[in-house]
Amino acid sequence: MENALQYSRDNFDRSVTELIDFLKIPSISTNPESAPDVRRAAEWMADHLRSLGIQKVELMETPGHPIIYAEHLVDASAPTILVYGHYDVQPPDPLELWDSPPFEPIVKNGNLYARGSCDDKGQVFMHAKAAEAFMQTSGTLPLNVKYIIEGEEENGSVNLPAFLNEHKDLLAADVVVVSDTALFGDGVPAITYGLRGLSYVEVTLTGPDRDLHSGIYGGAIHNPINELARLIAGLHDDDHNVSIPGFYDNVVPLSDDERSTFASLPFNDQEWIEDVGVSKARTAKGYSVLEATTARPALDCNGIWGGYINDGAKTVLPSKASAKISARLVPNQTPDEITDKIRAYFEHNCPETMTVSVKDLHGGHGIVVNTDSPAMSAASQAMEAVFGEKPYFTRTGGSIPVVADFKKILGLDTVLFGFGLDSDAIHSPNERFGLDRFQAGIESIIRFMQIYSGK
Questions:
Q1: How many domains does the chain have?
Q2: What pTM was computed for the model?
Q3: Residue 394 has what pLDDT?
Q4: What pLDDT is stored for residue 398 in this prediction?
Q5: Which of 431, 401, 396, 397 is nearest to 417 (CA)?
Q6: How do strand 67-72 and strand 56-60 relate by DSSP bridges?
Q7: Which of 163, 179, 304, 362 could form a disulfide with 123 if both were Cys (CB 3.0 to 4.6 A apart)?
Q8: Are 126 and 178 in contact (CB under 8 A)?
């Protein structure tokens, strides 16, 4: 292992250069026009794994973008890890807010700036570099490794569950390892054991059959924008609890032990408030910022539009108004249940002057995993060796729906072994990944592989 660690350090600059080449490919899975680039990114990553000497690497087609499957099997008696990641990225918009072009990676102040640098190209690439370090120093890996790297994570992973069901035998393993989460803070190691789920819908209210002149019709037409704004405002009560009937029916209250653990974590509410640029946090009454953002459900409007929004004036009463609304869910809440309740809220409260449609865009289940497993212990030991302190076990507010799919379909728990930071601006302009954390991630994965192998 020590030789592998030294190799990773000696070849770090080359690893960064290779990652930059990977990041230059605009693999935006949500944009149909980017489909050739999405495939190019898949081919690039597959070719790179082949260059490392991984035994089997192939692109497996789906109705959408291809999935990279790779494996390097060394000993039937050794543990097998299934490494999951994704090579697709979020759209870079709004482009004008980037300090440098999103697909022209640049290193500045120790950070690598580019779309996908942290989510998830940079983090999945750490696994390739860890494997390379072993292959170049000992000619093999200390345990069996399978890789599944998809190109639709940022588009809901719509084809992945069917792929998992179809290839259960091929994907057999002891545990899944995912690097797509964050440390608790800069230099503060953490392993995520809980994720929130997701229900994501698009709501449209339709009034008149066309846009109308506000001077001629104003005062006698019920405006869809006004009404949609009213309905959205009614999604929360004065204590910022979600007011949709039944929304909390299946939520398991936080235990006293869980709340004590949250209170003991090195989290500063005021620093968080200053970091996000607001004057005050707004949580449901009685819950801390950390509890509210990681272990409690939430409901938010993510976008709203209708009528005329370009420069200048156009005095119209809009025919339609729409909004995208997402709910972050905790275990025991299901996306189907919450989507139905959101739909029922808008249908029940839609005025007779309008019609409403609620389109289910996508969703995923939340999950909490066992922190006492051998794989979790190995990950904790690996991080402690690299960071000099034991990692915290934490829950996060984000969603990785495939983690629940791995449990439901393959029966596998997941180690969420991420090295990002909440301040890395994933999904936002100026996304970045600290090169120190890129190296720490590689070394942690090397140590994890060796420890978990039992050798």
A1: 2
A2: 0.86
A3: 92
A4: 85
A5: 396
A6: antiparallel
A7: 179
A8: no
C-alpha–C-alpha distance, residues 174 and 164, integer Å: 15
pLDDT in tens, 207-222: 999 999 999 999 999 9
Residues 376 and 389 in one domain: yes
Which of residues 329, 364, 399 is at a domain's end? Answer: 364
Same domain flag for 36 and 153: yes
Determine the structural domain holding residue 390 and report its residue range: 2-195+367-453
| Regions of the chain short of the pLDDT cut 50 | none
Which bin fits 104, alpha (ψ -120 to 50), beta or left (φ > 0)?
beta
| pLDDT recorded at residue 400 | 86
Asked if the structure places residue 284 within a domain, the reply is no
For 18-37, how does the pLDDT look when each residue is reduced to its tens digit (9 = 90+)? Answer: 999 999 999 999 999 999 99
Asked if residue 344 and residue 424 are part of one domain, the reply reads: no
The tokens describing 75, both together, are 């000993």
**Would you state the structure tokens that stand for residue 293, as one six-digit string?**
């953002």
Q: What is the CATH number for 239?
A: 3.30.70.360
Is residue 304 domain-shared with residue 384, that is, in the same domain? no
For the chain, the three-class secondary structure string (H helix, E strand, C coil) is CHHHHHHHHHCHHHHHHHHHHHHCCCCECCCHHHHHHHHHHHHHHHHHHHHCCCCEEEEECCCCCCEEEEEECCCCCCCEEEEEEECCECCCCCHHHCCCCCCCCEEECCEEECCCCCCCHHHHHHHHHHHHHHHHHHCCCCCEEEEEEECCHHHCCCCHHHHHHHCCCCCCCCEEEECCCECCECCECEEEEEECEEEEEEEEEECCCCCEEHHHHCCCCCCHHHHHHHHHHCCECCCCCECCCCCCCCCCCCCHHHHHHHHHCCCCHHHHHHHHCCCCCCCCCCCCHHHHHHCCCEEEEEEEEECCCCCCCCCEECCEEEEEEEEEECCCCCHHHHHHHHHHHHHHHCCCCCEEEEEEEEEECCEECCCCCHHHHHHHHHHHHHHCCCCEEEEECCCCHHHHHHHHHHCCCEEECCCECHHHCCCCCCCEEEHHHHHHHHHHHHHHHHHHHCC
Q: In this structure, what token pair is assigned to residue 3?
A: 């030789």
Q: Which pLDDT value is given to residue 399?
A: 84
Q: Do residues 60 and 209 both lie within one domain?
A: no
Do 445 and 390 lie in one domain? The reply is yes
Q: What is the CATH number of the domain that holds 183?
A: 3.40.630.10
Amino acid at 82: L
Where among 342, 364, 386 does a domain terminate? 364
Closest to 142 (Cα-Cα) out of 319, 325, 31, 2: 2
